[in-house]
Amino acid sequence: MRGAQLLRDDRRRASWKHGEVPESSAPEFLSTTRLALAPLAAADVAEVHAIYADPGTWLHLPSGRHTALAQAERMVEESEQSWAASGVGRWAIRLRHDLPGTALPGTALPGTALAAGTLIGVASATLMDCGARNFGYRLTPASWGIGLATEAATVALAAAQASAYPVTARVLAGNPASVRVLERIGLTLVWRGQGVAGTASDQPATAALERLIFADRPLEPDLLAAIINLG
């Protein structure tokens, strides 16, 4: 049965890579007017690495930029574990339709036209060891400034909230665009302060940076403290 499910999922991913949306999808396959979201898979690794290795996606935390393909592979592994354990993990975000190039936000530079099926980013609501979901997203700069982050985050949050786990998001105070997205989709600021160095070996040190923590509900003090300590 598991093999049959994997085959069906692979077929869905193959169709969504071409901008097609199947008539009937499992709950983990999400769609909006412009986007198709499917569970992150090994086949996405190269495209995900290209986005996470792009300095343009790390303007607010340059030290976080990925430098090895293995980091994207680890993202897929963590996502698969989260899907198996809690029913939600990470999604690959793809365009359903061609996206004409638009001027990059704050500049007069022309944007890059993107074809239907292009992987433009990742949305995430993985389950952390502390018992809360870590919500976030990262999109290629070529897709910024036209509401795609809010569009993807809205449906990803709704899927994450289908379970009982609290949904939380950590963001740098110096990243107002991401703050606005979190506020727009309905998350509430529950903490603001200086971060601490992350406990994970690949977590950039953030001790000197002001961070904000958002959540979809009030958090117990012990849970909030655990999330603060993540950096």
From TrEMBL:
Record-linked InterPro entries: Acyl_CoA_acyltransferase, GNAT_dom, N-acetyltransferase
Domain N-acetyltransferase positions: 59-216
Gene3D superfamilies per record: 3.40.630.30
Gene Ontology molecular function: acyltransferase activity, transferring groups other than amino-acyl groups
Residue segments, region Disordered: 1-24
PANTHER family recorded: GNAT FAMILY, PUTATIVE (AFU_ORTHOLOGUE AFUA_3G00765)-RELATED-RELATED, N-ACETYLTRANSFERASE DOMAIN-CONTAINING PROTEIN
Name of the protein: N-acetyltransferase domain-containing protein
Organism the protein comes from: Cryobacterium zongtaii
Lineage of producing organism: Bacteria, Bacillati, Actinomycetota, Actinomycetes, Micrococcales
